[in-house]
Sequence to fold (435 residues):
Amino acid sequence: MAAMTMTEKVLARAAGRDAVKPGDNIWVNVDVLMTHDVCGPGTIGVFKQHFGKDAKVWDREKVVIIPDHYIFTKDAMANRNVDVLRAFSKEQDIKYFYDVGTKNYKGVCHIALPEEGHTRPGEVLLGTDSHTCTAGAFGEFATGIGNTDAGFVMGTGKLWLKAPPTMRFVFHGKMPPYLMAKDLILAVIGEIGVDGATYRAMEFDGDGIFALNIEERMTLCNMAIEAGGKNGIIAPDQVTFDYVNARNAGQRPYTPVKSDAGASYIYEKVFDVTKLEPVIAKPHSPDNRAFVSEVKGTKLDRAYIGSCTGGKLTDFRAAAGILNGKTVRIDTFVVPATTEVARGLKTEMIGGKSLEEIFLAAGAKMGDASCAACLGGPSDTFGRLNTPISCISTTNRNFPGRMGHKEAKVFLASPLTVAASALKGEIADPRDCLI
Ligand code: SF4
Fold:
């Protein structure tokens, strides 16, 4: 049998075949389908339309419903969307529904999924959100799909997919303290462009990757879609297994896979992390790459630390390390991705102070766990850019209007760079703060 990449192996298993190769069209059995408040109602509509108003989802334990986007708003349409999820989850007796306003509420779906044990190596996870690729950090095939496909999966547990070819990005070396996974992925996207990985798997490899904790690996895979990637993926190791085994919902057995030696890649690029500098994406595209040192001093109005990309405990630990004992010069918004992260902000300490205490003492505003301003949202959304200001953000997209106002400028950077910039009121290099 020909050597296969991890992505090919996961898809082969899900298709009940010994092997697949890039370009093969296959029916795959889906292990988890996730939907949220933005796309859930549409997905449910498609499901009902095609399978009948009394139809049942294919597996009530494999459909995971996570309201997270437009949650804390007075907007009637947004509230109605959550009501649709509530009614459907009740009607279908959905086992994993993380409803807002209850103790089950979690926050951003891509972080809630692993925290609640829905990500497992070797599985296929589909979601009605482009950043579903985040879960590739657990060695699984995870990708975003549209409402029509999701409605079909809801009814059948299957989807017709084309196996993608794989690009391999190898990172060697010990990560310097001023770099984070966000810098690595912005470097990759800057290198290949926002369409450089269109319908391709992006496999991240090398000792530089396996030295990262699981949250940093999630940041890397999260932004695969910003290069057009079908999925991002990292081989599971002990770090992965420790995390997954402690949380695995339903203790489902899983079959981890790794790429075969000799597997073929359509592209390969090797990075030496010791030689990388902090990277930033200028407005208005994630591939508009610059080194932070090149744009240092650019005036800013706002800093934003949050989202599935930059709202995890690792991100806040990094930002708090820089903000500790100092005061921000511009409006700075801190939004934990999930309620678990929010609890961590109260218990995680630096020098006897909790991360939350550090952020509040620095003058930052703290929001509730959710997507908040990452996707703009209704005008009463916490942190939304309602005027044409300049913002540096740990989020993943900076297209015009993404965080609210169409003429606002968004710079994407690591939590270290965002925190350093919040202190100066202009783009700042974290190396100047860490020395
Ligand atoms: S935090 Fe942002 S990128 Fe992540 S799921 Fe929410 S809106 Fe999408």
Summary: The longest helix spans residues 76-92. The two ends are 53 Å apart (CA to CA).
